[in-house]
User: Fold this.
Amino acid sequence: MWDKAPEQSSSGRNQKPRARGRGRLLSYREAIREGLLQAMEQDRRVFLFGEGIDDPAGVFGTTAGLQQRFGAGRVFDTPICENTLTGIAIGSSLAGLRPVLIHMRTDFLLMSMDQLANHAAKWKYMFGGATPLPMVVRAVIGGGWGSAAQHSQPLQAIFAHIPGLKVVMPACAYDAKGLLLSGIAEQSPVLFIDHRWLYDEKDAVPAAAYRIPLGKAHVVRKGSRLSLICVSFMRKLALQAAAELAKEGIDVEVIDVRTIKPLDMVTINRSVGKTGRALVLDFGYSFCGITAEIAARISRDVFGSLKAPVYRIGLPDTPTPASPVLEKCFYPGPDAITDTIRRIMRGQKRVGKHR
Amino acid sequence: MTRLPFPVTLARKIYTSMVRIRSFEERICRLYSQQEMRCPVHLSTGQEAIAAGTLIQLRRQDYVVSTHRNHGHLIAKGAALKSMFAEMYGRQTGCSRGKGGSMHMSFPQAGIAGTSAIVAGGLPIAVGLAWGSVLQKNRRISAVFFGDGAVDEGTFYESLNFASLKKLPVVFVCENNFYATNSPQKARQTNPRIHEIARFFRIPGTCIDGNDVVAVYTAAAGAIERCRKGAGPSLIEARTFRWKTHVGVESDLEKGFRRQEEVALWFRRCPVKRFERYLLSRGMVSQQWIDTVRESVDKEISRAVEFARNSPYPRPETESTDV
Ligand SMILES: Cc1ncc(C[n+]2csc(CCOP(=O)(O)OP(=O)(O)O)c2C)c(N)n1
Ligand SMILES: [Mg+2]
Assistant:
């Protein structure tokens, strides 16, 4: 019951998963686990640690069985001391290892902020690039079921704000595995943020190890009238909304940014240059958020092509409430997206108060 | 159990407090599958003696800060059961107006300053409350409850240090149930004797059987007296065991996370049953009195649930208030 997403009014039907190319159908959860497993098989320097990662529940199943497979030296439970664990990741990386530090919730990363922001993010730069600092910090976002204020914060913008941290947010199984393997192979700190409402989503995933370069957005659906640019879980809603709008003849292009830092503005600008309209979606706070960054850049870079202001949908500027009726107001559903797009297409001035 | 350090009238109050906590959470277990309490619940079943034995001795204006596992502390300190249930049912009449759920309940009118679901998050806040009362000379003391997991965090040590340095009226109560989620204490700490840490900070530290409410009462009485005298903080390590899963209403035994012997041992040490037997065997209460208490508590809880269910949900626009 801990894993349930709040109910959403779904006007868009679920996309049926289809195995494309040479992959098997694998869930997002299994893809993350496979990525971790293959990284450890490929490189003896990789190790995993974090609170409760050896628990039978295995971080929502993503670390299940890995300790049995690789031993307690390379996969282990830790004391509850996030800041220190982050420093230990830094130190072990400097000593030649490739740590992957795993947190069940992104909220706990706030405890790590000193080592993350003052140390991990700076170490390479402030010593003139003297040493690389490969390390991955993985954390989970997504609330629901009254997770409330301290167990549901999507903090990607905070991390992206800090120079020296890369931030990766996969929204499908294929991307999760490929981006995780890339992140682990990087030479500087990477935050990998997965979304728990996506764990059971299936996608075609090749059995072999593969890497998806950081900083490459993905055009998930081609369209001509409006660019729907999305982060993490919002991709799922975006595709539902696009399918719904297609029935009304509104042909929407969907772009999953996949990594919010580095950010692939080339792909985004090319799309908006073509469609002339953009709606940016983030499963994060709008205020000072990722959507603001993307919208500002679009408005500068392809100003001449814009037929409408750039709009955004994200989370409101409040902590997460517990009551189901309040949660429903807090999390945007597919209807918010379709409504907003219809208004943009009609050229309406008032598109919505948070947009 | 030792000789009763308190009068029979107080013993009865303490017993009633424990029964209220136990019954409150048993009711949650019974109703949770209806999916009307749509929030994670961390039950303190099996740990009731620590809350009851400590908080019965605080004044209403004294402070308490608690954790994700907070129901017992709230009840023992005097929160209204109906507003707690209403909070879990996500209603406007909840003590946090539906914003917090089970993990985030406060009741300032009874000194319950708040509860943090961030491990060790409440410790420095309790120290700050004590600092506030010293500076304002209002004689309030501050009790903070935390698990063995909090001892892993740096702020635990920093809080002890500051409280000791400024001789603040804080009672640190560690509910050592030997697990943080499913991570055993020995996988996280080399020295299982948490109370020994206090000594380094020149704070008296005691270790007690947390399922023996008389022992809890005695240890807490000493710590509270020190606070009232201005002699500074104390730490109590109360050893106990939680009967339910870390979160939710199931049992770890059924889930295969605990050994049968371990669980059976702690069931035998049930703090409520123990105190009940103790009082009965000494003729301090009659079986009839016990039955009456249980019955009236049961009714009180039914009324509280009824109240919660009949309460309105918060208006949607309140999502953006109180920021
Ligand atoms: C800073 C932080 N890290 C991790 C967690 C996840 N978490 C929630 S409760 C818990 C275990 C707490 O154990 P303990 O302090 O012993 O309290 P208990 O649950 O046993 O009462 C953990 C690790 C958290 N809430 N906060
Ligand atoms: Mg514990």
